[in-house]
From TrEMBL:
Residues 1-13 have a biased composition (Pro residues). The lineage of its organism: Bacteria, Bacillati, Actinomycetota, Actinomycetes, Kitasatosporales. This is Uncharacterized protein. Residues 1-20 are annotated as: Disordered. It comes from the Bacteria.
């Protein structure tokens, strides 16, 4: 007769057997408060995640984009949580921030709100462009609704981000 109790998992692997995970498996998410200091939390988290997956060369661009994404979205619904998703697929890092601010149904209000969001994302847009990536925002399909703002950074472009910044220096 089998035991009604679930068995323990196998013993933890010893330190030396712990290999770094494959970048393509990177799928991490984090919920932060809708507050100005959350940009710093998110930046630190993304840096740590990239380091674990040995994607450190992407960190300067990815950390800056993350900070800008949070900074541009938290004040649209202050106090409401922001959800950050970090994924790596097909040689590109995908960063998404879900905020609770739903698109407006009134066209003029919607246009005004979009323009405000775009203006807040100017610095992020410049970094993404320098990396040869793409970005955008739209209605979130998550159960909580709101808006999803996303940026995709190709590995080669993001890894060259600081090098290209450095070439501007005398
Ligand atoms: Zn609005």
């Amino acid at each position: 007769m089998s035991s009604p109790f679930p068995s323990c998992p196998p013993p933890r692997p010893v330190e030396g057997e712990c290999r770094p995970p494959e970048p393509d498996g990177l799928a991490c998410s984090l919920t932060v408060p809708g507050a100005p200091y959350s940009a710093q939390i998110a930046r630190g988290a993304v840096r740590a995640v990239l380091h674990t997956y040995r994607l450190d060369p992407l960190a300067p661009a990815a950390v800056q984009v993350t900070g800008e994404l949070i900074a541009a979205t938290w004040h649209l619904e202050p106090g409401r949580s922001l959800y950050l998703s970090v994924r790596y697929r097909e040689d590109a890092l995908r960063l998404s921030v879900y905020d609770g601010h739903a698109p407006h149904s009134h066209p003029r209000l919607a246009a005004h709100c979009e323009a405000r969001r775009r203006a807040g994302l100017r610095v992020m847009a410049a970094v993404v462009r320098d990396c040869g990536g793409a970005w955008g925002f739209g209605e979130s399909r998550e159960p909580g609704g709101g808006t999803r703002t996303w940026a995709t950074l190709p590995h080669a472009g993001a890894a060259g981000y600081l090098r290209c910044q450095g070439s501007d220096l005398p």
